[in-house]
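Q&A log
Question type: sequence-to-structure
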Amino acid sequence: MSRVLILSTTTGYQLRSFGDAAAELGVELIFATDRCHSLDDPWRDAAIAVRFHEEDASVRAVIDAARERPIDGVVAVGDRPVVLAACVATALGLRGNLPDAAAASAHKRLARERFVLAGLPVPWFVDTTIERGIDGVLGKVRYPAVIKPVALSGSRGVIRADGERELRAAFARIVGLLSRPEIRALRTGAEREILIEGFIPGREYALEALLTAGRVRPLALFDKPDPLDGPFFEETIYVTPPAAAADVEARIVAAVQRAAEALGLRHGPLHAECRVNAEGVFVLEVAARPIGGLCSRVLRFASATDGSPRPPAAPVERAPVSLEHVLLRHALGEDISAVSRENLAAAVMMMPIPRRGVFRQVSGEDRARQVRYVEDVRMTAKPDQLLEPLPEAGSYLGFIFARAPRARDAELAVREAHRHLTFSIDAAIDVVKT
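Response status: OK
Response body:
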């Protein structure tokens, strides 16, 4: 039986989907998660205890475990495990990325610097730290500008500023976010660094792809139909296929290919964010991991083979498979050239948090699920959970999924379903220390 190592945080939404896919393929999963190594398997999942910020010790822990259960492939789920996954793949001689390339992909400033060297279109940018402040870089800033923490992802802490006053206020807000104990505990090595760059107008897209021997294999291109012009940049809806001309899609794939080469990425899942305008395709980021959390459920694939060593003599119709199914096969070195996204259009809404407060309940779920083309409504916020909107937010209220013959129908379905939902959020009572 083949084995694949999944590196994830202990709260990864995708782990169940990987488990289902592994059962379909007859693959054994080994988990390595960021948890206390002194506890005796608290989640009863036989996971290897690692620390993403302690790469050498974590690699040794994986190597020790691999002596008893040899590992045939590695997949990183989420941003934090990306570098450790590359270190493990390199140490075990498996398919994957080099640690230096993975680290650059996960660091906004390093990525920008490599894009510049490769001749990719990049906005002007300067960097600073909490300690240095912004006074020393103000002379290099033009407006509108975007200021963002280097170490955070998912639009967290990203703020547009149209003048110096707004920039100073945004800097102070980001400093407050980065000073939180849960952020400092990430220990990325860049949690005190802040990037300021030019605002890029245009339409935003996301590309989901696989890298094989350095070549980008597109799986799906997502349109983001809601304008993302600031002051915050909350991603709400992904729709595929996009309402974009074929040449736009080809230009995005070509730009992401160049960006992946600039970073040095060579094998594994890839999630890229791009802005397109009259000046060209601006690659915002190329993450060496798949689309995150429950969002992966928006993707389903048809395949001429299920990955078994002896394909049937005649083609047979099979149910669509998940993204995780495709990722496991790719991690094991299987040929996924026959895999293609299903014919139906699909959309997912990441339900935004409207205001800060304590979540109590949601009503209208049944009506939302009855909307034509809606496939599922999944709440992830828990009762009594403290919610925060962007730019501080690190989560969503939940997700709405739809599939339809046309992309526009899927988009309208998730919007209509969301209108049926009513969220009860009480004002938070902040404790003031004296």
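Response note: Residues 124-198 form a domain with the Dna Ligase; domain 1 fold (CATH 3.30.1490.20).
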